[in-house]
Amino acid sequence: VQLVESGGGLVQAGGSLRLSCGASGSIFGLPLMGWYRQPPGKKRELVATITNDGITNYADSAKGRFTISRDNAKRTVDLQMNSLKPEDTAVYYCRLRFGVVNDFWGQGTQVTVSS
């Protein structure tokens, strides 16, 4: 399974970005997909996840500003980020999990929010 992210970049505080992640390869069952991020000098953390039937979960920092969505037919998961803050600066990673041991990550995309 391969995950490829796109959509990162540099944006001013208050701006918006949309991240996209496409999955390819052999995927079985009902995969959970999500976005995580790793700010500079910090550990990787949850941003949002979405189940195969659209149930979402957000980190407190993302609630009200970010929206996760997925297209099961296209095998994509997107993250719409609005009202971005400098503290949202991080490398953002797409993640896909199915079954017990199948856990895949994308290569990451940099998001930088300037003040």
Structure description:
It is a single chain. With 115 residues, the chain is mainly beta. The protein has no helices and eleven strands. The strands form two sheets. Strands 2, 4, 5, 6, 9, 10 and 11 form a seven-stranded mixed sheet that branches. A four-stranded antiparallel sheet has the order 1-3-8-7, with no helix packed on it. A hairpin with a 5-residue loop joins strand 5 (45-50) and strand 6 (56-58). The protein is globular. The mean pLDDT is 96.
Mean pLDDT: 96
Helix content: under 10%
N-end to C-end Cα span? 37 Å
Instruction: Tell the overall outline.
Output: globular
Question: Keywords, please?
Answer:
single chain; seven-stranded mixed β-sheet; four-stranded antiparallel β-sheet; globular
